[in-house]
Amino acid sequence: MNRHLSLSSVSARLSRGFASACLLTCFTAQAYAQTDAANVTVDFTQPGMPTSPWSLGATISTYADGGSNLIKGASQPLWQQYLQDLGPLVWRIPLYYHAGQVGSAAAYIHGGNEGEAYIRGIKAIGGMPMIAVGGSTNDNDIQASDASNLVHFFNDAGGQHGGPVDGYIVGNEPDNGFGLGNYIYGGNGSSGFHAIVAGLRQATTRPLLIAGPAFTAWASYKYSDFQTFFAAANTDVDIVDFHKYGDGKLTDNLQLTSEYEDGVNWLRQQVALSFGSRASQVGVQVGEFNYNSFYDSSWRNAFYTSVNLVHTASVIGHVLRAGGNAYQYSDNNGPLGLITDGTSNHDQPQSQNIRLPAYWGMSAWSGGAWTRRFGSVMVAASTQLPDVEVFATDNAKKIILINKSVDTDRHATLTLIGKDSGTYSAWEYVRGMDPSAFSTGPQFQPPVNIVSNMPFAQGSLGIDLPWMSVVVITVD
Predict the structure, then answer these.
(1) Interior CA angle at 364 toward 35 and 457, to 5°?
(2) Cβ 425 vs Cβ 449: under 8 Å
(3) Which helix (H) or strand (E) holds 45?
(4) N or C terminus: fewer CB in 10 A for the chain?
(5) What Rg, from alpha-carbon coordinates, does the chain have?
(6) What are the tens digits of pLDDT across the range 326-359?
(7) What is the mean pLDDT of residues 196-217?
(8) What is the pLDDT of residues 49-74, one digit of tens each?
(9) Residue 210 pLDDT more than 80?
(10) pLDDT 10s digits, 432-447
(11) Burial of 277 (0-12, 13-18, 19+ CB in 10 A)
């Protein structure tokens, strides 16, 4: 089979239809013999990094004056339902306190007095808010007194303004024009990281999780910036936060998702070197990730197809396996998000609110209304299948199989170490490569339950992995 098909050729292959693909998968998933040679191993006896309620999240956009989001627009109830369907997640939101107002800290929609409504909205969908603390005029000109008042606003008197809120990120991408020295030591309107953190902590008796520096990227040219921050902030920061987007490619982007795992591992090593006895208490998070940092029409074949589904599920797997937190940047003003905002911006369908492939990539891990959530610990998992990744958790047992190929189906025969027999269920996130098929494309639809409570023995089971798709298995 041609391994170098163009994206247009790939899209053309969908003419066989969603239903027939499902029927084939549903049949073959149950029909393969358990004697097939194993090509995927999941070892439940080899625990890796733990997970936590803070491990997975996304961003509540506050840019939505022209569309819908969690608290705005005619489609706001639908938005709330869609986000609640993802299950309990961390929701990162940019807010500020200044001159008695608590509102959006987003660069282009800075102001308002809607902070309480956003926090209440997040909690109404079962989420945990993590506030990206903004300054009086931009992301980083934060005064310690304003930071303190922000915590007082949400945490005083039992949280009468929708709180309490225990997670805070200080600023946003200070290395993008604001100045690293100003962010760390003070200047350009900032009180400096140490003073801001002191203001946050002194405002409440609750233990807070405080993150920084929220740099634009993890890359070799950022190493010295991280090390400068660590030297100055190793007594203050609880979570090292960095942003990383896709590398500006189409399907080639899919082969680079392991870089997220590399970034978390490198930062964990640097924390161990720089933080002394506190190192074991300091986490790492990807505060923003996405397929790419901008959109134009040349990206339709990635943002609006299963390419984005596969990319999102893969990034989360790599980050969690390294022990990090993964937060998708769900800015809803276009395909950078989880849901279209009802406008025609960025090739969206006008007046429709559609759950995008990135949304379904998130749900593969969160479970939500469709499958179970990932378990409390990552476990060892490996495969010999080309273009296939496998991630797994225990407590509860969940396996995520990702086929990144642009043209080749695979069949996975799994060996489960530490689970000799039981039952399994499986869901397929069905491939969809037509970026304009918003009403019919399977990449915009819930996963299909292809196996239900199937018995297995001798620690072996089999499943088909169509190209450019994600399959989720739960084991009991």
Answers:
(1) 20
(2) yes
(3) strand 40-50
(4) N
(5) 22
(6) 999 987 666 678 999 888 889 999 999 999 999 9
(7) 97
(8) 999 999 999 999 898 877 789 999 88
(9) yes
(10) 999 999 999 999 999 9
(11) exposed
Q: Flag whether the pTM goes above 0.70.
A: yes
Q: Kind and range of the H or E element at 310?
A: helix 306-321
CATH number of 7-48+375-475: 2.60.40.1180
CA-closest candidate to residue 427, choices 18, 27, 20, 26: 26
**Rounded-to-integer distance, Cα 195 and Cα 185, Å:** 9
Query: What CATH number has the domain spanning 53-366?
Result: 3.20.20.80
- Strand 469-475 relative to strand 460-465, pairing: unpaired
Tokens matching residue 166: 């225990």
CATH 2.60.40.1180 in the chain: give the residue spans: 7-48+375-475
For 31, other C-beta atoms within 10 Å of its C-beta total: 9
Residue (of 269, 199, 192) closest to 233 by Cα position:
192
| Tokens read off for 155 | 């945490």
Strands 209-215, 460-465: pairing is unpaired
| CATH 3.20.20.80 location in the chain | 53-366
Within the chain, how many helices (H) and strands (E) appear? Answer: 12, 19
- Tell me if residue 244 falls in helix, strand or coil: strand
Name the percent of the chain lying above pLDDT 90: 83
